[in-house]
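Researcher: Predict the fold of Dicarboxylate/amino acid:cation symporter.
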Amino acid sequence: MDSKNITRIRLSIEEILLDMREHFGSEVPCTLTMGRKWGRHFLMLEVRGERFDPLEKKEQPEELSGWGGRLLANMGLTPVYLYKNGKNQILLKLPKKQVNPAIKLVGAVVLAVVSGLLGRMLPPETRALLDAGILTPLFDTFLRALSTVAGPMIFLSVAWGIFSIGDTAALGMIGKKMMLRFTGVTFFLTALSAIMSLPFFQVDMSVKNMDGSQLGSIFQMFLDIVPANVVQPFMEGNSMQIILIAAAVGIVILILGEQADTAARLVEQANYIVQYLMEIISAIVPFFIFISLFQMMISDSLDQIAGAWKPIAVYILFILLLLGAVLVYVAAKEKVSLPVLVRKMFPTFLITLTTASSSAAYGTNMNCCEEKLGISSCITNFGLPLGIVLYMPGTAINYLIVGMYMAVCYQVEINLSWLLIAVVITSILAIATPPIPGGGHTCYTVMFLQLGIPEEALALTMTLDLIFDFISTAASQTFLQAELILQADKLGFIKKEVLRTNEGA
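Model: Structure tokens for Dicarboxylate/amino acid:cation symporter follow.
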């Protein structure tokens, strides 16, 4: 059990003891029993005397009992009151010791690869039937569940994150810097990738063929951030519009203060519900990993991908170089061991690498940032859901490499004007990509239209996206964790002793 949950339990038990002492007096003894039953550890408090339940809701809602109850509720724990043989008993069953999530994830990957290799021996008709009849429906069901929760999760996390900052001055300091850093670094890394790609793709360095219609289309992308109504962004999964609505709600609640207490509590409680649902989804992520990798292994898409190895190889090379440079910079600046930093980030990286979903890794990512990297919840509550949408450099570089490769394949001239527009469009589309597997399919259509690439390129692109989606999502989340460390340090919201320690690595 991590240190945060241990502290929550201790504070909640202390609250119960204070209530009992207030009722019975300090002279009455209290017995604390700790043990293990049916594989679960438990705590039991016993006080002899008249019946008194400290867990009952008090008349004063502002008293500590509601606060302590929420601490345990956030952990999924519920203390039980019993009155036996003249004794008041409070029983709290602690969760069973969990298997290391990284072990589960690695096990799912290994099992999927082994099963996939064995599945390749089956007749093509049997593999097609298995894919269409079982694997695809299971995969789509998980995606529907993920998509259902992803929109509300982003909305509530951003709205509550803004409100929990405390005041509008702090919001202006943190929010403005985060958004500028997220968008600025995304554009910078994409532009740097464009320069790095020059030796791999034939580029005419002349400036020509830049017209007003292309610039107008880019400007329209910014205008489309404003939604037509409140419901449509959630139905379509438009992350940018959801964030805009959430930011507006959070800022209004923050400005109104006590006048919006009911709305603030509603957002807080709804946020707890959605976070709990995300934890349930995270618990079945290993199964989802197995399904997605096994489906890829037995399908014919691997054969098509193998024939278009160049963009994949170039992309992996760029990601390794850029991500490696960023991690080395963070390790040097924060004076933390690079291997320790990598090991702490690995569980989140593995989940996103094997699911292509930043939403599926949200719970693990939040735990990593707060418990292992020492980033304050003031930053993670607001910055993590915001960064999942706004900070997608891995996806932007992915779009750029695919666009350049398809332009070469279909003999579309790549000149300096084309490259500049490609950098802008891919950076914007990366922000607009929903944080779920396959979220970039519609973005490819928009990108090809703006860059003059024929629609016929979409068929191969969708196949290549099976690989790119996994790598880009994993890279973006690692970029995000590194960026949050830097921003938290700059704002003074990081525990460097937690970041530098080997614990949790």
